[in-house]
């Protein structure tokens, strides 16, 4: 199918030979840039007036001239006409120029920073405290240093506004804190900085999209699965009452923080006729993979190294995981496509038997206990189709484990 052909899905709203729309003439004579073109397309789609195949062709031609044929090679040609217009209009709008990424000292945030810098996008790396010299140097070595600004940020609304200013996208990947301030409840502590980030993004005029890093802990606990073949979906939420009853405080913080962000976003939409902020949350599984920072004090590195070196017993139940690089790519793709909504980011599940096999392939000297022959517990699925549609490809378990082990050997941790 060529870029300008229609398909049966379009027959219900396209008909050849209809009168040309005034919008066609406006596009032909417009000297406007990407933003104006995107606004014209958005207005036209909202009216649901796609009765003219000639109009569709003109819109696609006009937008293709702006964004180039690269989009075609990336799969846009396989979309129906309506979806192609939407995809092209997103790509034609003002490009990502500057992104703020919070919690820059974390492994996930550092990998997200790397994704954006290597695509020529300026990054403000915000930290709640000062980075040590080793950490700062590791971030500067991720790519073009001139595109990276490292700043300290207070997690209040004013502090967020200061670092968000001038950025069109914010990725808030600082997960809920584990300690409470004096007189503050655990639940209030969990949601405070997320609400502050949301309000700052709404207040800061330059910000158009906020992406929150959440966890599958907010999805999978005490949640009935409607279709086991599909598994958990973005519509599923953990049961907060059951989490409290079982003292699962870490999962509860994740759940409350994400839910609070969606409530703030919902209030914005109910009070504004044309809300300016788009919002997305990405629920990631346990992170496994290489660390950017030359330290063992990293959860995804520590988890594997402790098992390999006999400091922790082999895990019994399989767990869901995602390669930290894949999780970073997911954040980049959601930002790049201005995709809104809730996304699940799970690369797969890993049993100790498979973990054992992949580690030994990469590091035969590992003194790992042999896996037992006990049956493996059933592992539920997660519906990650929304990220797959954006172009994310998850790494294989071997690629993930091997990259983590290689990094640990580089860091002399094995």
**Secondary structure: number of strands:** 10
How does the major sheet shape up?
A: 7 strands, parallel
Taking pLDDT < 50 over at least 5 consecutive residues as the criterion, the unreliable ranges are: 1-58, 64-79, 177-184
Amount of beta strand: 5-15%
Termini separation comes to 52 Å
The helical percent reads 40-55%
Q: Rough shape?
A: globular
Provide a compact summary of the structure.
The chain is of the alpha/beta class. 44% of the residues lie in helices and 12% in strands.
Structure description:
This protein is α/β, with parallel strands linked by helices and 414 residues long. 44% of the residues lie in helices and 12% in strands. It contains 17 helices and 10 strands. The strands form 2 sheets. A 7-stranded parallel sheet has the order 3-2-1-4-5-6-9, with helices on both faces. Helix 7 links the parallel strand 2 (122-127) and strand 3. Helix 6 (107-117) packs across helix 14 (324-336) and helix 8 (157-164) packs parallel to helix 9 (186-203). The longest helix has 23 residues, at 249-271. The termini are far apart. Residues 1-58, 64-79 and 177-184 have low confidence and may be disordered.
